[in-house]
Task: inverse folding
């Protein structure tokens, strides 16, 4: 019988507050195989770990059970401690008596027997634990960044600077993302293009960065260190090697389509670059708008192109590459506020979203940088900004704060005053949130120096009246009904997850929160990690975020990626499946269910009636196996078992838990 | 909130074994704890890597040993950490539920639920509902193996 030691953590009062530790220790002493039981205030502390280590040596323990927080929290810590005391780390089991017990039950009379039952189950499992070794896996020394906005660009540059190759896959024809659409950035009012464009160029020119624009990730297979990624490079219809970026093609192109970059506020050509600073400066033919593709005639661009770079019969190219790590930085969308009928978005050209209004300030934007009403081209005198459109709205299930709106509204109100000195801005808000370095001061400046009127309250209705838009709201501080005859209305529409983020999440293996933003592995301590090893997230795909936070997170993700790439080998999964080949019938059902192609047939020789017999059986490649255990259940002869979660171990837990019946 | 193990009115407190996959449902249970939600202490969680790891044998063993209800919880279909494990689990366990019913055992005692790592509230709610349901059903007398009782 193994010699098990049980250690129970008080976690201050987190566990001790609702679990009678003394009782639990006493009960543990009677579990089969237990020769030592102890408790400590904080087992995860150095002193706590030393206590475990010393007890292992003093009592010649060969199994350890730790009753503490979730194994997802500190299993690694305790396994390491056990290893330091000379024990195989997989001989340790964790009983989760905090998250699954003391924190969810208020009554000590309830929580104590449950904690004892969970400890008994862990002890019963531990008796059957075996020493395991994690296989060593090779690391492909290349990173993939999905999304070429500021987050993706920053992460790519950081990884490249550390000396590793990095591919950036961007869906649009150019990198740059949302930041490229902005005119100025708060709170310093630097011009967005002026600070972003050098970064775009740096990424493009860096020998370690490979930009794969107009492309999408279709499939991700494999695991940390060895992700095999299928990338679809959409047909540009332009040869990027021949193209010099002269721009004659889009100058001459006769066909137009709505510009995605300008939020549909203006037209672009059928052959186009999304914005003047595009990187790479290689146009794309929009085949839905091109006359040659729709009607079979025109071909002007082909005739006019000096280096003859137009390739009409170019096709989508799908290629596969291996990466050691993946960073997802796919950014966000702005919600279409037309579902909010009271604001009349989409029914009047002078009711815009924040991002659309931003484009009016831009010299290359739809109005050439003049802030004018789109209805009649006149500069607005009164502009009403409405905050929290689709954010902090419990009634519509959008509970979260979009975080950037208070600040960009203040910025736009300041810019408006500078462009149109006679203009007056009104901001309807719920709360003004300006946490951040220099933010509060910036918003104060808007209110005090730029004469922006902040009205606490909500708008109930907007309706056109002649040339104007009547904004009907309430100022909840004075209790007065307010009516403003505005020239323009700007809606701070919610920042939302990309529409296809759940799909990408499925492809890459990241789960999402209820708003479809990607989930980090831990809200505080693992902000850029995900639950899939080797996959990191950065930027607004995780939650609404401003540029400083996005850049910081991108660099954090890059460090994580570089840390991984710098390793010679990675430790693989120790809890892998194992075939008892003597019993295996060779049906290979297991091969069919394995998501990692880790199982393959192998021929073995057996002695049979004096001679030898060749027979096909299944074999598991432990370097590929991730330990899901699907094969163990499909196996008809019951000859596959999963190390660390064996049939016997799980049944022992069931028996231990049911012992009270 | 029920005070599970001290129900003075009926005296009956069911035992529910919940098998939770490591990546979604177990983490959902962790989140329920971190968020200080509360559910009856009748539920005991066993961690499995994936609901595709769930051999129906584990469920039967729990019932034989006297568990009054068994819940298997995994990632939402499509969200499996191992990409396809919960599809196998879903198919196998729904067939198994029919079998349980066919064998004359109350199928309500066995449930499969999808709980993601962000659904701490759903975790607590499912545990609450399962407990209430099993309480109403009463003890598992059919499948429980009396010989086990005599051993212990």
Result:
């Amino acid at each position: 019988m193994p010699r098990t030691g049980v250690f129970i953590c008080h976690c201050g009062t987190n566990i001790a507050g609702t679990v009678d530790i003394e009782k639990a220790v006493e009960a543990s002493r009677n579990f089969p195989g237990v020769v030592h039981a102890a408790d400590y205030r904080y087992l995860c502390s150095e002193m706590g770990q030393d206590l475990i280590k010393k007890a292992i040596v003093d009592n010649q323990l060969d199994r350890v059970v730790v009753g503490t927080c979730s194994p997802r929290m500190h299993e690694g810590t305790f396994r390491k401690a056990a290893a330091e005391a000379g024990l195989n780390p997989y001989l340790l089991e964790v009983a989760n008596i905090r998250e699954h017990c003391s924190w969810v039950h208020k009554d000590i009379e309830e929580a104590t027997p449950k904690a004892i039952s969970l400890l008994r189950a862990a002890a019963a499992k531990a008796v059957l634990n075996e020493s395991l070794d994690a296989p060593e896996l090779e690391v492909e020394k290349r990173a993939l960044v999905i999304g070429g906005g500021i987050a993706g660009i920053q992460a790519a540059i950081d990884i490249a600077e550390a000396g590793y190759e990095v591919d950036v896959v961007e869906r649009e024809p150019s990198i740059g993302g949302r930041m490229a659409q902005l005119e100025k950035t708060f709170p310093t009012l630097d011009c967005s293009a002026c600070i972003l464009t050098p970064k775009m160029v740096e990424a493009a020119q860096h020998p370690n960065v490979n930009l794969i624009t107009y492309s999408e990730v279709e499939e991700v297979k494999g695991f940390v260190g060895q992700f095999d990624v299928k990338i679809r490079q959409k047909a540009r219809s332009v040869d990027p090697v021949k193209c010099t970026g002269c721009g004659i093609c889009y100058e001459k192109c006769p066909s137009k389509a709505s510009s995605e970059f300008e939020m549909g506020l203006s037209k672009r050509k059928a052959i186009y670059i999304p914005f003047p600073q595009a990187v790479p400066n290689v146009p794309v033919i929009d085949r839905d708008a091109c006359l040659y593709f729709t009607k079979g005639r025109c071909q002007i661009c082909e005739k006019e192109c000096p280096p003859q770079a137009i390739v009409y019969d170019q096709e989508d190219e799908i290629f596969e590459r291996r990466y050691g790590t993946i960073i997802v930085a796919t950014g966000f969308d702005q919600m279409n506020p037309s579902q909010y009928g009271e604001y009349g978005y989409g029914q009047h050209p002078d009711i815009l979203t924040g991002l659309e209004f931003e484009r009016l300030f831009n010299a290359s934007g739809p109005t050439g940088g003049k802030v004018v009403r789109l209805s009649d081209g006149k500069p607005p005198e009164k502009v009403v900004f409405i905050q929290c459109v689709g954010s902090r709205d419990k009634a519509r299930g959008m509970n979260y704060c979009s975080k950037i709106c208070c600040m960009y509204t203040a910025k736009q109100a300041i810019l408006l005053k500078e462009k149109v000195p006679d203009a007056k801005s009104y901001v309807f808000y719920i709360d003004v949130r300006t946490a951040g370095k220099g933010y509060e001061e910036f918003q104060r400046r808007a209110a005090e120096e730029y004469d922006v009127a902040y009205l606490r309250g909500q708008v109930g209705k907007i309706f056109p009246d002649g040339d104007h838009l009547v904004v009907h709201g309430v100022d909840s501080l004075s209790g007065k009904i307010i009516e403003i005859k505005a020239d323009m209305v700007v809606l701070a529409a919610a920042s939302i997850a990309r529409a296809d983020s759940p799909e990408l999440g499925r492809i890459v293996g990241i789960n999402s929160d209820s708003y479809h933003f990607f989930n980090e592995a831990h809200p505080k301590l693992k902000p850029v990690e995900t639950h899939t090893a080797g996959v990191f997230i950065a930027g607004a795909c995780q939650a609404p975020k401003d540029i400083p936070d996005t850049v910081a997170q991108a660099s954090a993700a890059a460090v994580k990626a570089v840390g991984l790439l710098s390793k010679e080998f990675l430790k693989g999964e120790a809890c892998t499946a194992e075939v008892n080949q003597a019993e295996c019938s060779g049906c290979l059902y297991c091969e069919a269910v394995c998501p990692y192609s880790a199982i393959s047939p192998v021929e073995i020789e057996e002695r049979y009636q004096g001679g030898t017999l060749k027979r096909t059986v299944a074999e598991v490649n432990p370097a590929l196996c991730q330990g899901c255990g699907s094969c163990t259940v499909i196996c008809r002869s019951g000859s596959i078992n999963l190390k660390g979660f064996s049939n016997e171990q799980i049944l022992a837990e069931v028996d231990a838990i049911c012992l009270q019946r | 909130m029920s005070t599970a193990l001290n129900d003075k009115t009926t005296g009956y407190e069911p035992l529910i074994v919940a098998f939770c996959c490591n990546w979604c449902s177990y983490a959902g249970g962790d989140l329920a704890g971190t968020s200080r939600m509360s559910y009856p202490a009748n539920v005991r969680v066993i961690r499995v890597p994936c609901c595709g790891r769930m051999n129906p044998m584990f469920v039967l063993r729990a019932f034989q040993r006297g568990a009054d209800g068994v819940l298997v919880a995994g990632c939402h279909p499509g969200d499996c950490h191992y990409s396809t494990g919960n599809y196998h689990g879903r198919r196998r366990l729904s067939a198994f539920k029919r079998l349980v019913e066919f064998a004359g055992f109350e199928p309500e005692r066995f449930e499969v639920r999808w709980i993601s790592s962000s659904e701490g509230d759903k975790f607590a709610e499912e545990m609450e509902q399962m407990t209430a349901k099993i309480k109403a059903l009463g003890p598992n007398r059919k499948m429980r193996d009396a010989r086990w009782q005599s051993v212990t």
About this structure: The radius of gyration of chain A is 31 Å.
